[in-house]
Amino acid sequence: MQTHNLGFPRIGAKRELKRALEAYWQGDINQQQLLQTGAELRQTHWQLQKEAGVDLIPVGDFAWYDHILTTSLLLGVVPERHQNGVNNIDLDTQFRIARGRAPKGKPAAASDMTKWFNTNYHYIVPEFTKDQEFTLCDKFWFEQITEAKQAGVNAKPVLIGPLTFLYLGKTTDDSDKLTLLPKLLNVYQRILQQLERLDITWLQLDEPILALELDDEWLQALLSSYQQLDKGSVKLLIATYFGDIGHYLPALSALPIDGIHVDLIAEQSDLAALHQAIPAHWVLSAGVINGRNIWRTDLLSAFHTLKPVYQARGNNLWLAPSCSLLHSPVDLDLETRLDDEIRSWFAFAKQKCQELALLKQALLTDQLDKIVCYSQSIQARQASSRVQNPAVQQAVAALKLQSTDRAQPYPVRQQAQQQHFSLPLLPTTTIGSFPQTAEIRQSRLAVKTGKIDQATYQGQIEQHIQLAILGPVDLCCL
User: What pLDDT score was predicted for residue 89?
Assistant: First the structure.
């Protein structure tokens, strides 16, 4: 049996990557210093996972901005306005794509940013054209693999799958994205060949679009893509998450792959049915540790769910978080001001890796003492007075349908509210709503240091907001 992780937070336990990036963008550190910070974080995170008991450690999951943008650079998908010469992709290229500007290169409008499925993580949307070409350009992803192997890491490279990458992108000329698939698959084939030369055993290809309701065209494209790819000696683990994929398994089970990862947390998936639906020689990676929250896992409950499948499947059952641990804080050990009860409910990324090792040991030995002890605190949380409030429960139970009815129509309520609160026309804040430009930051610094007064500051902010909303136009023409 193997434990593995789908991805690890790259920001650092003390937000080291965020601080380094901001310092680089401001010109306070040079590019070499930024690269050094990234290298140190990768080494730290690999070692942390290894010490926690993770057998196969994800490599290639590190990104300077986001993993979709990293994949875009790997595949040579760079909008023309962000290019800085023929085939010249460097570290600043991705910052121009994501931010519209970087320490060097010509500024240009940033690419779109949108939510990563149903999480609050965001990614930069790839931009395609009808004549889009794909080619292996940025070597950073491969460099991470070499770096990990040199460090003695039992590496499992992680990469967004071809269909998910294409699906999440957009065409800028209204062309059909799927027509680009053959050219994209050619590059993925080259990636597999290079991994084979690097003597890589497993490649994790993430296809989270399987959690969506795909139309037949996209589903057939996914199935045919993996039939076409020649994986050689590299074993393929298709990773899905954020939803149940049971309805796709009859079709997926015919693919020439070696395993599939399923998210057992996001929806009520039937693990026994999943086990029956996929070939016996496949690895079934069970995502039983929640990768999207900060709560400790009830390992005893997970043990009872997994045990029958382990007895039937043996070492072809792997243990993993439900999805990448990107969404979790790094290390609970740094939280020194939590009281003991609340602290006992939590598990951050490091602790979730340790949970995998505890669960594996229990399944291998049938010795449950450690997981029984570990699970007691999260079980006790259900009855804690800090979670359960009898007064609130009684009030909810006493609610009747009429409780939702308003006593007065909205115009009457609006007048009463205005008399009571005396609110302005738009009683909201603009926190996070307007671009934080260099000019706005300069105005804020000037008023804080007394260089301008509050009235001047207010006037400048109004001008900045006008430009942010309307652009540099003549208001008299509107």
Answer: 87
